[in-house]
């Protein structure tokens, strides 16, 4: 029976506690266990079964607690994710909290999976935008090579925070773009300046920053504050260098032109330095031709100036006499008398002695020319009035000749033209006194201001004017006397008995003719119109200390003073010649 049982074990599916207990009782019966032993073993079995149940219950309790904790953690994670992502509500969160724990966990798990994926995507977005912000900020700060590791703050992954980072990124990108444009503009300016100055652009710009080389991409160029500052300083230095070189070149160009003009250098030789003289009046910004201010060009101009200076020394006499001729011409046009022969002899002596620096001699002559021009300018207004006075005096002399012509009213050829001229001459002659008074006033003011005598070709002008006015006054007195004599003659002709027997006619007298200042004593002299007085009046003032005219003045050599014997032929054709009583 036992063998059969061993060979054919019971089917486990049919084994229960009852069948096992029955089999145990059978075994006990066969063995012959006592009832106490049996009760003891049954109690032991009950205890063991109770322990098993307890373990199972404990395991079930722990499992339930774990599930509850997992559910609680899931809910906390859900809340945390929603808070981090900035989501107040989210589609897919189960609304019901009833059902078994596993059902609740199964309901919340898909939402958590979606939120975890959304969190990962959001972290990636944050990392990307923050990486760009960090990179641009590092480029602006100038420490792009020392980029720190980036950590995304997962406590706030909201869209609002991400948008804030995007706004910050856009601002930085705009600042980078602006800085990049500034860098490129400055680099372009450096390039242009280096081209004009003939400098190496590559070495100049890479000294500021290696990334500024043309071979480097635009986006890779340094845009830091230091780079911008150094570029700006480089531009300032180059501009100042450009300004100084331009001033130097303009100075050399001026010297070249002066030396060329002194030595009458032909245009073919001058054209060799057109690239130097073309910028003589240019401003700094106007000079943009590459190499226009290169050092070798300036050195070339310096060598040429030095060569011309040496050539000038060998042509010193020719140049000096040319300056002297210019000085004499200025004084001649200003009617200032100078000793030209003595001046030329002095120049010859200085050059031959070798005791004077040619540059100093020319500078002194240049100063003399400047002073002569200033003096000529100060005399200009007075000389213009002198010219008007002389022209009026010539018209006055012509009018007197015209009035003495008995045939002036004949219908001869050109008579109407002479008549018109006579009308204009009378108007002009009537203005002579006022013109002389104005000329005297301006001459005296000029002399008082400069404490020197105003001379006209070596003759004091006021003395000339006083002499002219004295002669004009004598002529007027002569005319008045002749008018009285004419009146007396007419009365005597009407009533000879009153005056006794008829007197024999006397030689008629005419007024003195004041021809005015003539050139060298002739009416048709050269245009210089040199005026002179007697030798004892040369260089003296025309007025005495009390302001009155000097009665000792006599007619100047170039004045034509008429005698009484010759006056009869000078009476105006409109006035009959009286006979002396």
TrEMBL record:
Per UniProt, subcellular location reads as: Cytoplasm, Cytoskeleton; Nucleus
**Gene3D superfamilies from the UniProt entry:** 1.20.58.1520
Tell me which UniProt keywords the record has, alphabetically: Cytoplasm, Cytoskeleton, Microtubule, Nucleus, Phosphoprotein
Provide the residue span(s) of the region labelled Disordered.
476-559
Supply one GO molecular-function term: microtubule binding
The UniProt entry's GO biological process terms, in alphabetical order, are: cytokinesis by cell plate formation; microtubule cytoskeleton organization
Cellular component per GO? cytoplasm; microtubule; nucleus; spindle
Biased composition of type Polar residues is found at: 521-542
Q: Does the keyword Repeat apply?
A: no
- Please verify whether the record's keywords include Heme: no
Ranges of Basic and acidic residues compositional bias?
476-497, 543-552
Family statement: Belongs to the MAP65/ASE1 family.
Q: What is this protein called?
A: Microtubule-associated protein MAP65-1a
Organism source for this protein? Answer: Solanum pinnatisectum (tansyleaf nightshade)
Lineage start: Eukaryota, Viridiplantae, Streptophyta, Embryophyta, Tracheophyta
């Amino acid at each position: 029976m036992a063998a059969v049982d061993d060979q054919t074990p019971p089917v486990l599916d049919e084994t229960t506690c009852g069948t096992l207990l029955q089999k145990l009782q059978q075994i006990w019966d066969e063995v012959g266990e006592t009832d106490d032993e049996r009760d003891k073993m049954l109690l032991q079995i009950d205890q063991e079964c109770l322990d098993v149940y307890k373990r199972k219950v404990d395991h079930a309790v722990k499992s339930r607690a774990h599930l509850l904790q997992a559910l609680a953690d899931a809910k906390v994670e859900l809340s945390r994710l929603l808070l981090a992502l900035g989501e107040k509500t989210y589609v897919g969160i189960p609304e019901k909290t009833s059902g078994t724990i596993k059902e609740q966990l199964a309901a919340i798990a898909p939402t958590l999976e979606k939120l975890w994926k959304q969190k990962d995507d959001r972290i990636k977005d944050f990392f990307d935008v923050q990486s760009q912000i960090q990179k641009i900020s590092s480029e602006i700060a100038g420490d792009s090579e020392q980029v720190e590791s980036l950590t995304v703050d997962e406590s706030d992954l909201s869209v609002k925070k991400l948008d804030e980072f995007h706004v910050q990124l856009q601002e930085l990108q705009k600042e980078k773009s602006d800085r990049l444009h500034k860098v490129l503009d400055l680099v372009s300016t450096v390039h242009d300046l280096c081209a004009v100055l003939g400098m190496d652009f590559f070495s100049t710009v890479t000294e500021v920053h290696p990334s500024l080389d043309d071979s480097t991409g635009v986006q890779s160029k340094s845009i830091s504050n230091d780079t911008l500052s150094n570029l700006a300083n480089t531009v300032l230095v180059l501009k100042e260098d450009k300004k100084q070189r331009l001033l130097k070149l303009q100075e050399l160009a001026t010297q070249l032109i002066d030396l060329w003009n002194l030595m009458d250098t032909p245009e073919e030789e001058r054209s060799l330095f057109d690239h130097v003289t073309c910028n003589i009046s240019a401003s700094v910004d106007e000079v943009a031709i590459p190499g226009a201010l290169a050092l070798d060009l300036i050195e070339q101009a310096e060598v040429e100036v030095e060569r011309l200076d040496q050539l000038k020394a060998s042509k010193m006499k020719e140049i000096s006499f040319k300056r002297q001729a210019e000085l004499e011409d200025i004084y001649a046009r200003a009617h200032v008398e100078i000793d030209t022969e003595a001046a030329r002899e002095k120049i010859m002596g200085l050059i031959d002695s070798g005791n004077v620096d040619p540059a100093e001699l020319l500078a002194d002559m240049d100063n003399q020319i400047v002073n002569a021009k200033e003096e000529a300018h100060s005399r200009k207004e007075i000389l213009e009035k002198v010219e008007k006075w002389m022209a009026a005096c010539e018209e006055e002399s012509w009018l007197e000749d015209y009035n003495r012509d008995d045939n002036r009213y004949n219908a001869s050829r050109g008579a109407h033209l002479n008549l018109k001229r006579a009308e204009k001459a009378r108007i002009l002659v009537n203005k002579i006194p006022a013109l002389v008074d104005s000329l005297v006033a301006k001459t005296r003011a000029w002399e008082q201001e400069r404490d020197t005598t105003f001379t006209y070709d070596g003759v004091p002008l006021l003395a000339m004017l006083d002499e002219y006015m004295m002669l004009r006054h004598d002529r007027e007195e002569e005319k008045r006397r002749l008018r009285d004599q004419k009146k007396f003659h007419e009365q005597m002709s009407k009533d000879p008995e009153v005056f006794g027997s008829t007197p024999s006619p006397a030689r008629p007298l005419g007024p003195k003719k004041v021809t005015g200042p003539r050139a060298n004593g002739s009416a048709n002299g050269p245009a210089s119109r040199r005026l002179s007085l007697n030798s004892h009046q040369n260089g003296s003032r025309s007025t005495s200390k009390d302001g009155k005219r000097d009665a000792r003045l006599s007619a100047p050599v170039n004045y034509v003073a008429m005698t009484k014997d010759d006056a009869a032929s000078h009476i105006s054709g409109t006035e009959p010649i009286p006979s002396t009583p």
